[in-house]
Write a structure and sequence with these properties.
globular; Rossmann fold; alpha/beta; single chain; 8 helices
């Protein structure tokens, strides 16, 4: 890699991003950046009425994620401290494009581009995906009250949006490795062997990047 490791873990709601990010942080002794979710005052209303509350919800997330990325640049990356985050700010566009009206999305996109033009870019992305049944099972198991009204159709569409976005991302950024893991095949929460498999693949990629840099 050409810079201090900055790994982001991405995927649909309930896929296990935070759990895996914490495991990576502990294993490699990386700083951990966690997404602000429960603090969003609009999120519960959003799941009840997406059309009415989508713009407020997405703007809250954008402003908070911008501030978080600004902080990790000054507090960690600028001091060569590796970081793992349980989200990539590009997810804002995935959600916004799905939920905002055209005129709202165009305004949102202008603001997004301004805020992110000089933000740190991850040099490794981990993409978690799974079937709708697996995602629903994991959401139900973690039992967040705020997520009880999520529509399965919305989750299914979101998963398709992620697949499409990741394909485009890899085409636009071939220099950034994307490690993909299928949650139907690997359960890194229940199965320690699965977790070690993922950690080893990350380590191999980090080593490969360090070797190419030297």
């Amino acid at each position: 890699m050409n810079q201090t490791p900055f790994i982001t873990v991405e995927g649909p709601i309930g896929i296990g991003k935070t759990t895996l990010s914490k495991a990576i942080s502990e294993h490699f002794q990386f700083a951990l950046l966690r997404e602000i979710v429960d603090e969003n005052p609009f999120l519960g209303k959003f799941y009840e009425d997406i059309d009415e509350w989508s713009f407020q919800t997405e703007m809250f997330f954008l402003c908070n994620r911008y501030k978080q990325l600004e902080d990790i640049e000054t507090k960690f990356l600028s001091k060569q401290q590796p970081v793992v985050a349980d989200y990539h700010i590009f997810k804002n566009l995935i959600f916004a494009q799905r939920t905002l009206k055209n005129n709202q999305y165009n305004k949102y996109l202008n603001i997004f581009n301004i805020l992110t033009e000089d933000m740190p870019i991850p040099n490794m992305v981990i993409y978690l995906h799974a079937s709708l049944d697996t995602i629903l099972e994991r959401i139900q198991k973690r039992g967040r009250e705020i997520e009880k009204n999520i529509s399965p159709l919305y989750l299914e569409q979101l998963s398709l949006d992620y697949h499409s976005f990741m394909e485009t991302f890899q085409q636009k950024h071939p220099q950034i490795p994307v490690l993909q893991f299928n949650g139907d095949e690997l359960d890194f929460v229940k199965n320690e062997k699965d977790l070690q498999t993922i950690l080893q693949m990350i380590q191999d990629q980090l080593f490969k990047g360090a070797a190419s840099k030297s």
